[in-house]
Design brief:
Elements: E1 8-9, E2 21-25, H1 35-41, E3 54-57, E4 63-65, E5 68-69, H2 71-80, H3 84-87, H4 90-108, E6 117-121, H5 127-135, E7 138-143, H6 146-156, E8 160-162, E9 175-181, H7 190-200, E10 201-212, H8 217-222, E11 235-236, H9 239-248, E12 251-258, E13 261-264, H10 265-273, H11 278-288, E14 295-298, E15 302-309
Parallel strand pairs: 6-7, 6-9, 7-8, 9-10
Antiparallel strand pairs: 1-5, 2-3, 3-4, 4-11, 10-15, 12-15, 13-14
Helix pairs in contact: 1-2, 4-5, 10-11
């Protein structure tokens, strides 16, 4: 038991409402833990390996954390986070996003126009919006971290707004594309956010979601050493459960594919070394050989979903 139960909450399945579940991994939290400890864990790019109890819903198979940290604590941590390590990789992220946007433009016949608006939720330091802006779109971002917002504003001159989506005053049907890059697994109430997105999108507008696929080859092969098993990830979607989540909110998936990220080799090896010590040696070798900054494409289960808004209003969650 935790010394202060207010720090945690027990929830029904956020996808189907069932209270029955099977424990996949039990909690590893110490008997006594303080709010400040949790605030530290939930900083934006936390490297904290999974401490929370992970469960699988007995009814719909959604994998999620239960009990989980109180959402107010999660939001407070994100809002006050300062993350210079994360934004150091923005150059590589912008390159990846530029590639992805060009592919989407070609595949779906999207006409580049300043009147086409893109909203990025959980936009961090603005890498995706920088790529979209440079291609010729009108962009805006929402990000809980005030520090990351200021970074994106100062570095790229972007319209980034501090806070969460529900606090903004966007007009209905005012966006052509809304994106969540590595964000949906962090959101305590994805149902509410997706319903809000449905309202903000124009008819036939697109939503782009990137998430770590719990049913991917990497997750199954690496087991407990899969690098996306983190306390900051509240949900572990599979193609089946993300499809159900989106359908409940009035979206139709039109494409699912692996997402290949480009980051610096040294950064990737450093993250991998936390799970496999051998990669620490590789990190040192790469540094000595002057290869740490080498652009490296990788996939560890990241999956991209493109979904289209169904013109009828989002269905109510039952």
């Amino acid at each position: 038991m935790h010394n202060n139960i207010d720090l945690f909450e027990t929830i029904p399945c956020p996808l189907c409402g069932s209270t029955e579940f099977k424990v996949i991994y039990p909690s590893k939290y110490p008997t006594r833990i303080l709010k400040n400890d949790l605030l530290q864990i939930y900083r934006s790019s936390s490297d904290q390996k999974l401490l929370d109890q992970m469960v699988s819903c007995a009814s719909c198979s959604l994998v999620y954390l239960n009990p989980r940290v109180n959402p107010a604590i999660i939001l407070e941590s994100y809002s006050t986070s300062v993350d210079p390590t994360f934004v150091k990789q923005n150059k590589m992220r912008i390159r990846t996003f530029d590639r992805e946007l060009r592919r989407l433009i070609k595949q779906y016949g999207i006409v580049i126009d300043k009147r086409k608006r893109i909203l990025d939720i959980g936009c961090a330091g603005g890498a995706f919006l920088k790529a979209a802006h440079d291609l010729g779109f009108s962009v805006v971002g929402v990000e809980p971290s005030s520090w990351l917002c200021e970074y994106g504003k100062n570095e790229y001159g972007l319209d980034l707004r501090s806070g969460v989506l529900s606090e903004q005053d966007f007009d209905s049907a005012s966006f052509d594309i809304i994106s969540l890059w590595d964000v949906i697994e962090h959101i305590p109430q994805p149902q509410e956010v997706l319903a809000n997105i449905h309202t903000l999108l124009k008819d036939d507008g697109l939503v782009i979601i990137n998430y770590p696929n719990y049913n991917s080859w990497a997750a199954r092969l690496l087991g407990t050493k899969w690098p996306f098993l983190l306390s900051v990830h509240l949900f572990y979607y599979t193609p089946k459960t993300i499809n159900r989540q989106l359908e409940q909110c009035g979206f139709q998936i039109i494409q699912t594919k692996p997402y290949w990220q480009v980051l610096e080799l040294g950064y990737i090896l450093h993250r991998a070394s936390q799970y496999f010590k051998l990669f620490g040696i590789f990190e040192t070798i790469a540094e000595l050989a002057g290869l740490s900054n080498l652009s490296t494409m990788y996939n560890m289960g990241q999956t991209q979903v493109i979904a289209k808004k169904i013109k009828s209003s989002a269905r109510e969650y039952k």
